[in-house]
Design a protein that fits this description.
The radius of gyration is 28 Å and the shape is elongated. The protein has 182 residues and is of the alpha/beta class. The protein contains seven helices and seven strands, in the order αββαβαβαβαβαβα. It has two domains: 46 residues, no CATH class; 95 residues, Oxidized Rhodanese, domain 1, CATH 3.40.250.10. A five-stranded parallel β-sheet has the order 3-7-6-4-5, sandwiched between helices. A two-stranded antiparallel ribbon has the order 1-2. It is 34% helix and 16% strand.
């Protein structure tokens, strides 16, 4: 209940600022004691040396959070192919490698017929087993590991590598319902 009470008070304060009505809590701190159901108010003065709102502010814009913290996106941006597009590619002639980067136990449960298994943890060492001139479509369970594998292969000089969007789960749902879903 406490977050609801505080959220309601914050919403009222925001409306007062937006509408320009009432007296907002500028320069005041509202304290709420839920066990006694009481409010107290503290008044304070603005710090003239504040780096954001003081006389000579040094912080004048937002930082690039991702660059500042070294945050990378969890799944890198990669070229993708849908299960239906892969099915069409498999029906054509030409050099196509369908690469499964799941673990052997997952590959035993279900697989796309004709796919080659190289678990993600072994891919860097075993990349020489792949034809760099071939079209390569990489898949895993739902697409996260294969997106990482696609980025890795691209960095190793494989120019025609794509990720199967949604992995083998999407393949089972969109193309071949006989492939078990796990």
């Amino acid at each position: 209940m406490l977050p609801g009470i505080m959220g309601s008070i914050q919403a009222v304060e925001a409306l007062k600022l937006i509408l320009g009505q009432g007296e907002p809590l500028l320069g005041r701190l509202l304290l709420f004691n839920a066990t006694e159901m009481s409010f107290n108010e503290l008044r304070f003065k603005k710090n003239p040396q504040c780096p954001v709102c003081g006389r000579d502010p040094t912080v004048t814009s937002l930082i690039d959070y991702e660059a500042f913290c070294g945050v990378r996106k969890a799944v890198p941006a990669v070229r993708e192919v849908t299960p239906k597009e892969l099915n069409d590619l498999m029906g054509r002639r030409g050099a196509l490698t369908v690469l499964d980067v799941r673990e052997p136990s997952e590959h035993e449960l279900c697989r796309i017929e004709g796919s080659k298994l190289i678990p993600l943890g072994e891919l860097r060492q075993r990349a020489g087993e792949l034809d760099s001139a071939a079209d390569i479509v990489v898949y895993c369970h739902v697409g996260r590991r294969s997106a990482i594998a696609t980025e890795l292969l691209s960095s190793l000089g494989f120019p025609k590598v794509r990720n199967l969007k949604g992995g083998i789960r999407a393949w089972s749902e969109d193309v071949d319902p006989t492939v078990p879903v796990y």
